[in-house]
Structures are given as C-alpha cells and as structure tokens.
C-alpha cells in the first residue's frame, strides 16, 4: 500500500493520501477492486477524532483527474464545508510522493 501524509498549511488540516493501483482492493472492508488508478484522502488532523482504519474517509478521485487539474490548484475535498480543502502545495507533495519510483502509472 502506497500512502503519504501531508499537511495543508492554508486550512491546517492533515491528510493521509493513498494510491490505489489497478487491481488493488479498496472501499468498505476492501470489497471493491480498482480497474484504474485512484487516490483516496483520509482526514487525520490531530484535533479531530479518528475512526478505525487510519482517519475519516473524505474523498476518492481518479489519479488522471488529479494530474489534469492544472498547475498550482488545490482541491476542495468536501464541497460546501468550511473544512476539507487541500492546498496546491500539499496536493503536489502527495502526488509526487505517491508516484515516486512508479513506472507502471503516469
């Protein structure tokens, strides 16, 4: 399992970000099997109560969507909420860390 933890300075939130490669299991009790690369975000901000499994699930995106988002853009993981935003710097760090040494993904 390929994961990185990043801190979004603008929102003071911390996320555990996981790369789910094609063929990997994911979802509730690992009941789903990925047919394309996905990136999953879990909120692990220390001031919040964590749930079992490494933090509160926030969102999951196709890797290609994140790579095509445009340079210098962060991501609103929970639309309409005052929290759940990851800035561009933290998102870039997460993607760089997840893809480091991977030759099987873009």
Report on this structure.
This protein is α+β, with helices and mostly antiparallel strands and 106 residues long. The chain has one domain (2-99). It is 16% helix and 34% strand. It contains 2 helices and 8 strands; from the N terminus they run E-E-E-E-E-E-H-E-E-H. The protein has helices at 63-67, 88-99; strands at 2-8, 13-20, 25-26, 32-33, 38-43, 56-62, 75-76, 85-86. The strands form 3 sheets. It has a 4-stranded antiparallel sheet with strand order 1-2-5-6. A hairpin with a 5-residue loop joins strand 3 and strand 4 (32-33). The radius of gyration is 13 Å and the shape is globular. 24% of the residues are buried. The model has no long low-confidence stretch (mean pLDDT 88).
């Amino acid at each position: 399992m390929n994961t990185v933890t990043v801190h979004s300075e603008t929102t003071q939130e911390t996320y555990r970000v996981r790369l789910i490669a094609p063929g990997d299991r994911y979802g509730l009790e690992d009941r789903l099997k990925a047919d394309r690369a996905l990136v999953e975000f879990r909120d692990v901000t220390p001031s919040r109560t964590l749930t079992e499994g490494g933090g509160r699930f926030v969102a999951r995106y196709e890797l290609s969507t994140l790579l095509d988002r445009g340079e210098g853009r962060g991501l609103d993981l929970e639309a309409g909420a005052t929290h759940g935003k990851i800035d561009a710097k933290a998102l870039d760090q997460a993607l760089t860390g997840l893809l480091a040494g991977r030759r099987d993904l873009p």
